[in-house]
Amino acid sequence: MAMFTQSGWEGYGFIGGSRGNHTGTTVPMGAQVGGAHLQSLASAGTVAAGKAGAFTTNAFIERAVASWMHWNTVKQWEIVQKYGLEGNQAWFIGDKDAATGAWKGRGEAHGWPFNTVSMFFLAPHMVYQHDEDTGG
């Protein structure tokens, strides 16, 4: 459980880890670095012919966030399928009882063993980037 939790939250922290703002004030976050790289690859002709709002720094940051979220979800699916981990979440998500040391699971009867960033973070309200000056 600890490895699953770390893999999701550590990656989410790297890209910026904040709903609606994936930017750093003193150092760029992973989403800013990824967005800047995507922006550098954009064709000047495509940018000139497209809607201006689609090619802002913030739009590229949002694309980088969505890309990482998709990659993370695919990796989670691969792990679940490879090791047969689809099923009762209570097997993986829970805590030890302080008095007895017995495992007290919680969660859905059918699910994945991740209590971390997962496919639900692909929703538009999770990957969006505020339109503001990000310094990049």
Protein architecture, described:
- This protein is mainly α.
- It has a domain of 94 residues.
- The protein has a two-stranded antiparallel sheet with strand order 1-2.
- A hairpin with a 6-residue loop joins strand 1 and strand 2.
- The protein has five helices and two strands.
- Helix 1 packs antiparallel against helix 4 and helix 2 crosses helix 4.
- 46% of the residues lie in helices and 4% in strands.
Let me know the average pLDDT: 86
Placed side by side, the strands forming the largest sheet appear as: 1-2
* Strand residues, percent: under 5%
Q: How many beta-strand elements?
A: 2
Terminal-residue CA separation? 37 Å
Describe the biggest sheet?
2 strands, antiparallel
Quickly give the structural class.
Answer: mainly alpha
Tally the helices: 5
Order of helices and strands: HHHHEEH
Shape: elongated
Low-confidence stretches: none
> What is the gyration radius calculated from CA atoms?
19 Å
- Share of residues in helices: 40-55%
